[in-house]
Amino acid sequence: MAYATDTITSKNLSADRPLMTRMVGFVDHLRLNGFVVSPAETRSALATMTHTKGHTEADRQRLKTLLSSCREEWDSFDDLFEAYWFARGKERQTRHASESIVRKTPKLPRAWQNHLDEQDSSSSKHAPQIEEEGHVQTDGKASGRLMASDKAALEKTDFRQFVNPAEIAESEALAYRLARAIRYRQSRRYRLASKGGKLDLRRTIRTNLHHGGEPIDLAFKTKPDRPVRIIVMLDVSGSMKHYSRFFLQFIKGLVGQWAQTDAYLFHTKLIRVTDTLRDKNPMKAMTRLSLMADGFGGGTRIGDCLGVFNDHYAKKAINSRSVIMIFSDGYDVGPPEKMTTELERLKKRVKRLVWLNPLLGWKNYEPVTAAMDAAMPYIDHFAAANTLEALAAIESDLRQL
Amino acid sequence: MTQLPDIISRLADVDYIADDTIATALQLAIDLRRPLLLEGEAGVGKTEIAKALAAILDTKLIRLQCYEGLDASAAIYEWNYQRQLLSIKASETFAGGAKEIEDHIFSKDFLLERPLLQAISQDKAPVLLIDEIDRADMEFEAYLLEILSEFQVTVPELGTIQATSIPHVILTSNGTRELSDALRRRCLYSYIDFPTMERELEILLARMPNIEHEFAAQVARFVQALRKENLEKIPGVAETLDWAAALVGLNTQSLDGDLIQIQSTLICLLKTEADVKSITPEVTSRLAGEAA
Asked: Per-block average pLDDT, block size 10, for chain A (401 residues)?
């Protein structure tokens, strides 16, 4: 790497370097800091620079408009510009500082090991063996509408008992199928219908041309059900660790299958993970997730997290047909009043609030925690979520919108 | 190539007070002929920029308001079915085959141009304002990408229609949805913030010729301070203008005057119940005292 030994920042302004090299260096510098800049834009940048020779402020404005493409980039541009062209302000990441750009082999990070037990390590230990009836044949119908009933036995297995890779894969596949089953209704445009709805004039006129244009065979169109936007919030605190992996797979399935899903993790903080989950490489996704979710395993502050959501994400994430799904056992260390206030705010925005509690599936479980009590009035659908069957049941709930 | 001070003064001539950021963005958009994506809170004047641009270029403004479910037939083109049916009826007496009828009724005469097609078929390049693109869905973005990159529209029955002039495209977004990267890459980007105190004052003076300079400054200071309060819906420039107009209409001379009147006119600025409740007369009095 020719750049690595070069102290770019000190030589940037020396006149002996042609503008082009410096501009390429600047674009490089932006890319290292997360900008996506195409070669064509570099060219445009050069072209615009040659017009305004010497006027730094104008140059900065022009490059900012040209090279940034969202609010975050817009806000960080000035610092990066200063750092590169004047070696001032924050250094951020420049080439020479990043000689160690060696890509590490993705490995399940420590922070996640409790939650996402790597399959080999967990299979031998504390997980009880699955019952015999768990291994019923798995050739369900490919309709994808909902899970075939012959899967019931496997679905009833408590998630804590998922042990070997095959079963985990199976659970993931079921999550995918559930997501697809819900997604089936997704469409917001008119589409061809056999009868009813509106007359599809375009199609009618075209198909009747052979009758000399006389409309004899009529074509109809109808507006199908509108899609539901799903927002999932997964509690990844210590008390949920047995279920986290499964839910994460489920959420990954949803995010992958359904364009309108937004996913968040929370414990003491709230983190948006939608984009991370969209990553095709699951290992990379998990690595990035762990970087985002530093320091969990302790208690949950549901109220605070919901507050952060209400303040920062709600406007963007929620529309009038949103369902919010909270996966949590309701063990909250924060004050119940805080959660009540935030749930009330949230309830005003969303159409339906679904709370899935893995503990509910246990015999004799009553939602006894103070937090759960406080939350009950705002919940439209409170269900167990310790089996796939329970998850499948929420499809009918989404359908009611 | 136009110079920056030049574009600012031309915008000022049409009563749009621009700062360097906006002027640079517009100038680049004109020079590079690339679409400009404007983001920012509701009420910072994104739509006004497009109107001002159309005014200084002395060209048409074609506006496409986006909404959920917006589709090609509402945004690009649609066949005029009524005319097609009439024409079919009228031509019944002729001995024409299906082919002739088809060629006739799927000709340009029967095409209804919607904003996007209109925008690329003008003689003089218009300003195309695609307002609140974040309200439209992802599918619509895909249509838009074809038009923004190729400036052509494909109608299956007619073939590809090439642009006669490349429009100046301005897209606005309130950030209710993440836009696709492909669309962002296609556009220049500018984030419009609430105006500074000085700029807001200039806007007030430009838009309301009969307002006193000192009073306008008070109004601007008050609104600037109000924006720093913890509000659900931060008042935009349009709200400031409304409020100033209301106060001038009520013959208010200064903000340290009749507090009850000021409080009652705050409905011009505060648009939600929670905001109205949070700005109590005490808060108003404090803000007004600071501003006056």
From this structure: 37 57 88 85 80 72 88 87 74 44 42 44 35 34 32 43 55 61 51 70 79 77 70 81 72 71 83 78 68 61 86 77 81 81 83 79 62 80 71 64 48
Can you point out the beta strands (E) in A201-318? 220-222, 229-235, 261-266, 270-272
Handedness of CA B18, B22, B24, B26 (dihedral sign): negative
**Whether the predicted model's global pTM rises above the 0.80 cut:** no
Nearest CA in chain A to B25: A65
Do B1 and A48 lie within an 8 Å CB cutoff?
no
Burial class (CB in 10 A: 0-12, 13-18, 19+), A161: middle
A43–B contact, CB cutoff 8 A: no
Ordered by start, the domain boundaries in chain B are: 4-73+115-191, 77-113, 197-284
Chain A contact for B258, CB < 8 A?
Answer: no
Closest CA of chain A from B191, distance in Å = 7
Nearest chain B CA: its distance from A91 CA (Å): 24
Give the pair of three-digit tokens for residue A242. 């047995």
Tokens of A85: 């062209």
Q: Which CATH superfamily is domain B4-73+115-191 in?
A: P-loop containing nucleotide triphosphate hydrolases (3.40.50.300)
Query: 153-192 in B: which are within 8 Å (CB) of A?
Result: 175-178, 181, 184-185, 187-191
